[in-house]
Design a protein that fits this description.
Blueprint: E1 2-6, H1 18-31, E2 36-42, H2 48-53, E3 55-60, E4 68-75, E5 78-84, H3 86-89, H4 107-122, E6 133-137, H5 144-151, E7 158-162, E8 170-171, H6 176-179, E9 192-193, E10 196-198, H7 199-206, E11 209-212, H8 215-220, H9 224-227, H10 231-236, E12 241-243, H11 273-284, E13 293-297, H12 306-318, E14 322-327, H13 331-343, E15 348-352, H14 356-365, E16 368-371, H15 381-388, E17 391-395, H16 398-403, H17 409-413, E18 420-422, H18 427-441, H19 444-456, H20 462-479
Parallel strand pairs: 1-2, 1-6, 2-5, 6-7, 7-11, 11-12, 13-14, 13-16, 14-15, 16-17, 17-18
Antiparallel strand pairs: 3-4, 4-5, 8-10, 9-10
Helix pairs in contact: 4-5, 11-14, 12-13, 12-18, 15-19
């Protein structure tokens, strides 16, 4: 089966978040199930070395105001189709933002171009490769079904995957003519969203099936507090909506082989892990204490509940805990954690920014990872934590609820607990979760047992790949 993935980022080539990790992992996992997946993404400057070695397979004389080419290559075990359109993608700054930190003013054109090119490939633009199915990811690829319907009376089936419904790609409908979208798509049952042109709304309304990244998040999307205005559409399409839990690349994230940590280890050799703990404490200027060493590896936003963690910090420190923070985001949260370092020297450390090797050391050296998200479609850091024996302390929402088994009395008695869950997402509930974690940490045998179970918990892509293939086969079979 030939599957075209359409996305705006893909690890390890270009990454701003978990979407890239998923796009970089799923095609390789699908290959084990009999699928041939190719990933289409823009040829950003970071991809220039690949583009220079790639083969041109299609040209577009005018794509959103400039010339474009489609380039094919393979790298890191992934078959890529790079949309080379310098007038849209060859620019400094981040892939979505300019150097001023604001969205590029032509993001609508930039990602409509990606959808338009993908629609052409989906309907037969390439001589030697025709996909059986197109899987779009997030709003940047949401217009693919609309464009395909303009190009073919019988396009291949489509799947729209939601990684985070909070990001929807909303624009002035006056852009439709410039984007080459027929006016018939601007309806309540199509791309219209409260008077705006909704890229994600178009994909959700027009795709044959919808997936999201955890079963709990699929249910949450039908509720007003999580659906971000699209909960009605999600309820209407509930029969077409499936939650498929994300996994992680267990080759990249493997404490037995990880080149970024101070000492490699397995669930049978946890003593070696202490070298990582000492290296991490030294890196963050922390002094040992009686409680656990917590870490945060995250975008610093209120969605992630990190304002609540700032409020709970006095309690964490009073319980003998230590905290290492790696992340960037909201200026107020960055300032808050920087101030906490000065207020509690030796107990709180922070690195504002992102450092991939450091994130590996933090997973290998921390005792617990804090993820107090207000909503979390799936989350990957708790999966990394499980893999490394860093016990997740998580809000009971989305994929966090689906992947961490709370250390309540029944779970502890049954020897199945792998972390701590809490609800509601409040400061008081977070403080209680921190206390429970400290109590568990004070019981070395109980804590070691939880670590070993966490490290054995399945976090790879095998199950998800099989679920995707079952969905794909059902769609392609229905079409043939």
């Amino acid at each position: 089966m030939k599957v075209l993935f359409v996305a705006s980022e893909c690890a390890p080539f270009v990454k701003t978040g978990g979407l890239a990790d998923v796009i970089g992992a799923v095609p390789k996992a699908l290959a084990q199930t009999g699928a041939e997946a190719r990933v289409m993404l823009p040829a950003y400057p970071a991809l220039r070395p690949l583009a220079e070695q790639a083969k041109e397979v299609w040209s577009l004389p005018d794509l959103m105001g400039g010339q474009a080419r489609l380039l094919a290559c393979s790298a890191e075990g992934i078959d890529l189709l790079l949309l080379d359109a310098p007038h849209l993608y060859d620019r400094p700054g981040a892939i979505y933002l300019g150097s001023d930190g604001q969205d590029w003013p032509d993001n609508a054109e930039r990602f409509a171009a990606l959808s338009r090119a993908a629609a052409a490939v989906g309907t037969g633009a390439l001589e030697d490769w025709q996909p059986d199915l197109v899987n779009m990811h997030d709003w940047q690829a949401g217009l693919v079904p609309a464009y395909m319907s303009q190009l073919s009376a019988n396009p291949p089936p489509t799947v729209m995957t939601i990684h985070n419904i909070a990001f929807q790609g909303l624009y002035d409908p006056k852009l439709m003519k410039k984007l080459g979208l027929e006016r018939r798509h601007f309806t309540r049952d199509g791309a219209e969203f409260w008077g705006q042109l909704g890229f994600l709304k178009a994909g959700l309304a027009m795709a044959d099936r919808i997936t999201t990244v955890s079963p709990t998040y699929a249910r949450e999307l039908m509720l007003p507090e999580f659906g971000m205005g699209l909960e009605g559409l999600m309820r209407y399409r509930r029969q077409d909506l499936t939650g498929i839990l994300n996994g992680i690349d267990t080759d990249v994230w493997n404490p037995a082989t990880d080149p970024h940590i101070a000492a490699r280890y397995t669930s049978r050799g946890l003593r070696s892990r202490q070298k990582n703990r000492r290296a991490l404490m030294k890196r963050f200027g922390l002094e040992d204490g009686p409680g656990p060493l917590f870490c945060v590896i995250s975008r610093l936003t209120t969605q992630k509940g990190l304002d609540l963690l700032l409020e709970a910090l006095p309690w964490l420190v009073s319980q003998g805990g230590r905290l290492a923070v790696l992340g960037s985001g909201d200026r107020a949260l960055e300032t808050g954690f920087a101030a906490a370092v000065h207020k509690w020297p030796g107990a709180v450390g922070a690195v504002i920014g992102y450092d991939e090797p450091l994130s590996h050391l933090m997973q290998a050296g921390s005792d617990a990872i804090l993820i107090p998200s207000r909503f979390e479609p799936c989350g990957l850091t708790q999966l990394y934590g499980l893999r490394y024996g860093t016990l997740p302390v998580v809000a009971r929402t989305g994929g966090l609820a689906d992947t961490v088994i709370d250390a309540n009395e029944a779970a502890l008695a049954a020897n199945v607990a792998t972390g701590v869950q809490f609800a509601p997402v409040t400061t008081a509930a977070l403080e209680d979760a921190i206390s429970r974690t400290c109590d568990l940490f004070a019981q070395p045998d109980v804590w070691a047992g939880m670590m070993r179970r966490a490290m054995k918990h399945p976090v790879g892509w095998d199950s998800a790949a099989n679920d995707y293939m079952a969905l794909y086969r059902g769609l392609v079979g229905a079409e043939t």
